[in-house]
C-alpha cells in the first residue's frame, strides 16, 4: 500500500459525509469537549483570540480523524479536507449541512452590523 503522503487524499461525496460525521463526533468526545471549552474560555469571544486558541485545538481534533483517510496530519491536510468538502457543498445539501455544523463547533456566531435603509442608516443618496 502506498504511503499517505505519496498520493493525495480523495474522497467521494459519500465518503466525505462519513468523515464529516466522524469529525463532528470527535468534537463531542469528552476529552475534546474539555479542550474546546478551555480554548473558548481563553478566547473570551474575541475573534483574534479565537484564532489563537480555538482554531489550533479544532484543527488538531480534525487532524486526528482525517489522517486515517489519507490526509496529512498537519494544517495543510485540514485545508485540503476543507477544500474537498467545499467542492461538494453545492452538489449535496447533506454535506453542506454537516459542514455548517462543523464550522459552528469552532467558529463563533457572526453578527453582522445592520445595513441599508431598514437599519435606519443615514446615508444620503446623491
Automatic annotation (TrEMBL):
Q: Which GO terms describe its biological process?
A: camera-type eye morphogenesis; cognition; corpus callosum morphogenesis; post-embryonic development; psychomotor behavior; regulation of skeletal muscle contraction; third ventricle development
Entry's localization field = Cytoplasm
Q: Name one GO cellular component term.
A: nuclear speck
Q: Which UniProt keywords apply?
A: Cytoplasm
Location, primary (coarse class): cytoplasm
Fetch the InterPro entries from UniProt: P_C10 (IPR026317)
Task: Respond yes or no to whether keyword Nucleotide-binding is given for this record.
Answer: no
Q: Name the family the entry cites.
A: Belongs to the UPF0456 family.
Q: Quote the protein name from its UniProt record.
A: Protein C10
Q: Which gene encodes it?
A: C4H12orf57
Amino acid at each position: 500500500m502506498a504511503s499517505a503522503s505519496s498520493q493525495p487524499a480523495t474522497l467521494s461525496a459519500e465518503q466525505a459525509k462519513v468523515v464529516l460525521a466522524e469529525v463532528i463526533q470527535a468534537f463531542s468526545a469528552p476529552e475534546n469537549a474539555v479542550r474546546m471549552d478551555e480554548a473558548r474560555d481563553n478566547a473570551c469571544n474575541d475573534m483574534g483570540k479565537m484564532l489563537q486558541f480555538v482554531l489550533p485545538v479544532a484543527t488538531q481534533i480534525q487532524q486526528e480523524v482525517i489522517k486515517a483517510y489519507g490526509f496529512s496530519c498537519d494544517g495543510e491536510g485540514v485545508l485540503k479536507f476543507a477544500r474537498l468538502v467545499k467542492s461538494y457543498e453545492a452538489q449535496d445539501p447533506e454535506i453542506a449541512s454537516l459542514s455548517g455544523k462543523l464550522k459552528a463547533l469552532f467558529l463563533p456566531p457572526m453578527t453582522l452590523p445592520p445595513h441599508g435603509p431598514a437599519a435606519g442608516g443615514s446615508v444620503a443618496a446623491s
